[in-house]
Amino acid sequence: MADSDSEMSRAFVDTSLLGVAISLPIIASAAVGLRFYARTSKVKGMLKIDDWAVFITLIVCWGHSINTIVAGAIGGVNTITIPPREYANVALRTLWISTFFLITALYSVKISILSFYYIIFSVNYRFKQACIFMMCVLTLWWVSALILVFLSTDPFDAAWKNAASAKHRFDFNAWYISYSALSIFFDLAILCFPIPMIKSLQVNTKQKISILGIFWLGGFVCVSAIIRFVFLYNSIYRLTDYGKNQYSNITTAFIWAEVEPNTSVVAACLPTYGPLFKENKLFTRVYRSLRSPFGGSKDSRSAEKADTRASGYYPLSREAPS
Asked: What is residue 246's predicted lDDT score, i.e. its pLDDT?
């Protein structure tokens, strides 16, 4: 009986979730700060759209964390400190708000990565068109998701006024699982985007693998997305067990909802740290292959070198000389 009472009084915001909500945005902030330093100080370049997109993602990540912290402050950390009915409203409202933050963060970080690809492979017209097409698809995906979440309850303002009694216009749980699965698909697709371009580089296989490895530093994002999906699915399934505290079951899924966007920010920043590691011989060899993979005339290479130093980007592809 005591164990049952303890389970029923357990809050979904616990110390582990609170720790993740505070620490990960700090790490992501350091990653973005280092990215901006590499861009503006080391190569004297200007911040571009991919930098600002990842900065927006960071702001949204902080919003997501603050939403979690506020829920803990209102409803309690580890143990529920308010009446059950009131806590139900707090928990469901927190989940509803967090969905907006998560949807936006996962969208903007994908846009940042695609923008980075667009700039670094800028001389390949077909690749640029593919990046633009994917950005358009992602934008439609993001906007439609925001609209669906905003209008998910009937009436639509019940989500924040009386969440515990709100009725959904559609199966929100099934939609959210489908949305998360589609996000993983987009992550995998974006991860594979540079492969055709890197395969066409006129460098040896070892260098191609090194270059691909730089772009695939973000592979952990796909892993964290899959883990979040599994815990999300399990938590939604367990919400059907009305004999237990439903909201305490989502803690692990919420932790990974903090992990995924913040690690996405870090992963999006890693390939931009090239100017910080010029003294490393292995990295320098790879770095040079990024500058001028197809050779070309001495004058064109010099011009390219001057241009890329000014902008902070190093095109990975050039048209072969005719």
From this structure: 62
